[in-house]
Amino acid sequence: xxxxxxxxxxxQLPTLSERQKTIAQYILQHPEDAAFMTSKQLAQASEVSExxxxxxxxxxxxxxxxxxxxxxxxxxxxxxxxxERFQRGTDLSGTLLQAAVNSMHTDMKSIELTLSxxxxxxxxxxxxxxxxxxxxxxxxxxxxxxxxxxxxSTLSWIRDGVYLLDESHNPAFDAVSDMTxxxxxxxxxxxxxxxxxxxxxxxxxxxxxxxxxxxDSLISPLAHRSxxxxxxxxVKFSYADNSAPxxxxxxxxxxxxxxxxxxxxxxxxNRKQEYWEKSGFYYKE
Length: 285
What we know:
By secondary structure, the protein is α/β, with parallel strands linked by helices. The protein has helices at residues 5-12, 18-29, 31-34, 39-46, 50-59, 65-77, 82-87, 96-116, 120-132, 145-155, 171-175, 195-206, 244-258, 262-278; strands at residues 136-140, 162-165, 184-188, 210-215, 228-231.
């Protein structure tokens, strides 16, 4: 289970030095403020030196202060409302072009962090599950619905039995009643976590199906419900989810799945391509 920085601070409080206790108590009393402070700002607020703040982060097991602040971000992201996240969002000051450049550089950092967290064993198991399952159900609600739609529709090009789920009672929703342990439920959810997505995971567990989650943290409600959990990290704090690392990971998964049984999946795609051509699906001059 992923660490909770606030729990760590509470547990170590009795053994801390007086200066460290001062820092700890400020963070515990004002976590929403501390998560957005630089080490210098936290030092000023706690009335200690900046070096004391850095040593405090090291005492908690973080190699850099920025890592501790990111842990606070991760924890708070699931607790703040969209309005609160909007009010504390990423600084986009400066020219519009500079703001765009800074924002996209942050997206790149998020993708790099997501890449560094990938595990070969988990990735291999996930790809095999998607490629060999009897059926694949994909559930994403609210802001994650678009990404779920992208993954489900593209996966359906190469394999059959892919269902995109939402809260409406469409045919895909009713098809869940036929789930078995040979099926996969893929759930995507980021803070604040929609209850509907969590319910889809619980339904899949009821049918003993394999749950695969794509979420932000191991303290996400989807993490302990899933057999395999993929993490999409986001260093940007905004009311709008940063889809860049998530979409990048989904694209990687689609390509890896397509290569699992290249001949069979290629035949499926060729069949659909012929249908698209005959039906005039593509625009031509």
